[in-house]
Amino acid sequence: MKSGAANRGAAGVSESKCETCRYWSGDAVSDGMCRRYAPRATVAAGENDDPDERTFDRYPLWPRTLNTEWCGEWQAKPDGTLDGTAKALALTVLAGDLTAARPLADRVCELANG
User: Fold this and answer.
1) For the segment 69-113, what is each residue's pLDDT rounded down to a tens digit?
2) CA–CA separation, 68 and 92 (whole Å)
3) Is 39 in contact with 63 (CB distance < 8 Å)?
4) Where are the alpha helices (DSSP H) in 21-97?
5) Which residues, in sequence order, are bridge partners of residue 53?
6) Nearest to 35 by CA among 14, 63, 54
């Protein structure tokens, strides 16, 4: 896979941002979560104020990002149409991620063949 800078250049600065990434889930107006990888275990102090009885809560957490941020892991989000999926395929190939391109290529063939 190419570096983040090369990836952004291939896909275009305006397009390779979180809100257009297949791994991002969120509000297109502001923020969301990157689901590229499994959530990370997070530990936080519990609700108890007594230091002798302090508890800790554990919960999964995906990284939160703004919709305008970007990284080197960006992959185009297919929209389910032939044109949109073909565009996602082209951008993914240009970004150098041929492994991620395979399922998109298969989907393009399915959509094209009806």
Assistant:
1) 989 888 888 777 888 888 888 888 887 778 878 888 888 888 888
2) 19
3) no
4) 82-94
5) none
6) 63
